[in-house]
Amino acid sequence: MADPVMAAASAAPLAGFRVGLDGRGVASDYARVLLASLGADASPRRHGMPDEHPALAWCRSGLMALTGQRDGAPQMCPLPLASCADGVVTALAGIGDGIAAGAGSGSRLLGVRANIAGLRRNGAISPGGSCRLLPTADRLLAVNLARDDDWRSVPAWLETERQADWALVEERVAGAPSAALLERARLLGLAVAAANPPEHSAAPWYHITATGTPRPPRPRHLRGDVPLVVDLSSLWAGPLCGQLLHRLGARVVKVESERRLDGARSGPAAFYDLLNAGKASVRLDFTSIRGRERLRCLIERADIVIEASRPRALRQMGIDAENIMRTRPGLTWISITGHGREEPQAGWIAFGDDAGVGAGLSALMRDVTGERLICGDAIGDPLTGLHAALAAWSSYRSGGGRLLALSLDEVLKHCVRFALPDSADALCDRHDRWHRLALESGAAKLAPPKVRARAKARPSGADTETVFARLGHRC
Amino acid sequence: MKTLKAGTRLKSAICDTEVMVIRTRPAEMLLCCGGIEMIAMDGGKSAGQPDPAFAQGTLVGKRYVDEQDTTELLCTKGGKGSLSLDGQVLAVKQAKALPSSD
């Protein structure tokens, strides 16, 4: 296309932006990698403050306490995953107001659910309990049966007529080739991932999969021009993205389906509040014509849409993100999926724990500890939510007009690959050094951090009428 | 007529529809798509169009159940025909409830 406006929108979101970052260390380095990948000039300054050591960040995040055998010692991950979380917040603070960077600013978001829900490390079982690492005929497989309906699909997955429980799953997968198990699980929409080793490939952490007409760039200080965020997501990653945008000054409207509320509402209230306080709550019947019209109306007024469903779900409701991008100037659409929007991966699902396994974390932990371990608590969720907020705000600042697609799988692989040593020896050496530092400093004993929301989240649908009244009579 | 089993995959004889059996009862049944009996995944397609009485189409990812809720099919590929069991058109089941945590 020769149209210069379209060409501008497809360029990296922060092209032409200069972001000054003071810090020195792994978190700041990751922030610079992210900003550079978004097109910004983020060259380091000379005399910045040192970042927290990645081993200590791992402890402070609570993930040290959450990784290891239940009755064994907490385990160190030799990758700076907690520092990556701090790095995303550093990058975010570099392009927006209202968020303070610093040690723990991102990393404590990784362990916060476990603190609220009282979750503990449990070896090859996720702290939340729904994901297990199981041996198949040829490798380890992460099987995450988080929804009640997943259990009803297990007999079809494993071709058995018996009542499904973990003992049966373990028995049936033990003799089966993992490729066949993966293929059938994907058809059934089950979250299953192979514990492959980490990849050294250079895949990006976000993709621009559609573009529209951008608006002029927006200033760092919002002044009167408050963006409207329509948050269609649920559980952890998407809602965290919405919460961070709220803190950056956006007006966030959370939309739930009347027949399928955010599942996190039935979990601990303190965790739901942490992710959703400050958002208006709209509830719609997506099966009715009126409900779908109102959803479309909201999306048409949005500056940023956050959505964490498989692409076909909205398409089957008559909402086509790619088409909306073309008709709504300045819109930023954040798509969060398990494995991306391309076919066939668009139909696959992932939750936070299995995504971590799929990105190589369990294979890596096995190499350095000799044990079968799930790393952290649903680690793909908070890391993806953080990255999604950075993608969203970058695009908004530069005028929007982009569909930015992030997947749990690719975000985690990006974090894993950053600072991944070249050899197994180097990895083991680093593991030993970091583990010793954690023990000697006393940080190894740190429990998951306590973070609480300052306010309660709105009850479901509490703001439906007010929100639509404000949008005007056409809705 | 066939006795279905959980996990069996079948395809339509005359459109693109493919399904996997999620659960069923142990009895002989006539499972059709577009009004014609569904076939094994490696079976040969027939020529022709779906019977207009069974041509509402199927949607990938949707689950279809019979009126007695004893048989459930997952559509793994959408097509033009509608699914029916012993002549009765199957209805779309509501979406899965989300977990409270994962």
UniProtKB/TrEMBL annotation, chain A:
Gene3D superfamilies: Crotonobetainyl-coa:carnitine coa-transferase, domain 1
Top-level division of the source organism's lineage: Bacteria
Transferase in keyword set: yes
Keywords: Transferase
Pfam families the record matches: CoA_transf_3
An annotated Gene Ontology molecular function: transferase activity
Entry protein name: CoA transferase
Originating organism: Aromatoleum anaerobium
UniProtKB/TrEMBL annotation, chain B:
Top-level taxonomic group: Bacteria
Name of the protein in its database record: Uncharacterized protein
Source organism of the structure: Aromatoleum anaerobium
Native organism taxonomy: Bacteria, Pseudomonadati, Pseudomonadota, Betaproteobacteria, Rhodocyclales
